[in-house]
Design a protein that fits this description.
Helix content is 86%, strand content 0%. With 98 residues, it is mostly helical. The two termini are 39 Å apart.
Length: 98
Amino acid sequence: MTEDKTPKTFEEIDARLQDDLKQINGEIEEIESHLQIAQEMMDSELAKNSNDKIIVKYKKGLDELQKGLEMFLGIKDEIQNTITKLHETKKQADEHIK
C-alpha cells in the first residue's frame, strides 16, 4: 500500500509551499548567475570584435536564460500569492471558529 504524501493541515501545506519557494529562489539565483556570466562573456567577445555568429549565439543564449528567469519569477509570484491566500483563509477560518 502506498502512503499518501498529500499535505492535510494548514501547517503541512504552508511548509510545502515554503519549501517550494526556497527551491524556486535557488533556481532564480542560479539563472541570474548564469545570466551575469553569459553577459560578461558576450561583452568580452564584443570587445574582441568576434565573429557575428558567436555574438548571435551569445544573444540567443541570453534570451533563453531571460525567458527562463521570467518563468521562474512568475512561478515565485504564484507561490507567494498562494501563501498569502492560504494565510488569509486560515485567519478567516480561525475567526469563524471563535
